[in-house]
Write a structure and sequence with these properties.
The chain has 160 residues and is α/β, with parallel strands linked by helices. The protein has helices at 27-31, 47-58, 60-65, 78-87, 101-105, 150-159; strands at residues 16-18, 24-26, 35-40, 68-74, 93-96, 109-110, 121-122, 125-129, 135-140.
Length: 160
């Protein structure tokens, strides 16, 4: 496995992130033996990200019926993610990648986000990981205003 560009069939890279309670979460351990949706998003409290994560929240009962777990990941601090989670009643884990380790390993660096020179966020992307910790579905956009096709995500989940 290489350190960049995670492709379908490859294992999730080893990286540790922080949850909203400041606990370290190893990504490989978090996805082990469960189907997991990894939803990377550029920034808490931005319009499209709020709409996306609320859509995932509202369709989570469907995810639960498919025995799937959802982890949302951004480069925001755990404090910002906690406020964002609380403000939107998000019922899944939000993980922080402040050092951009996961963003680099998945090769989803969104450079100069929102016109801020030098600020690197995560490209909006969705990875579905099977119980074997391998990527079964991948969707990445270079345009932070584009949301994933939720029906496509659900259909891909049903096949994992």
């Amino acid at each position: 496995m290489h350190d960049f560009m995670v492709e379908i069939g490859e294992e999730v890279p080893r990286v540790s992130l922080y949850d909203t309670e400041l606990k370290k979460v190893g990504l490989t351990r978090a996805v082990k033996n469960k189907v997991t949706v990894l939803a990377f998003f550029p920034g808490a409290f931005t319009g499209v990200c709020t709409r996306e994560l609320c859509t995932f929240r509202d369709s989570l009962s469907n995810l639960n019926s498919l025995n799937a777990n959802l982890l949302a990941i951004s480069v925001d601090s755990p404090f910002a993610n906690k406020a964002f989670k609380d403000a939107n009643s998000l019922n899944f884990a939000l993980l922080s990648d402040p050092k951009r380790k996961a963003v680099k390993k998945f090769d989803i660096l969104l450079k100069d986000f929102a016109g801020m020179k030098g600020y690197v966020a995560a490209k909006r992307s969705v990875f579905i990981v099977g119980k074997d910790s391998r990527v079964a579905y991948k969707w990445v956009t270079d345009d932070p205003t584009v949301e994933p096709n939720y029906e496509e995500v659900k259909a891909a989940l049903a096949k994992v």
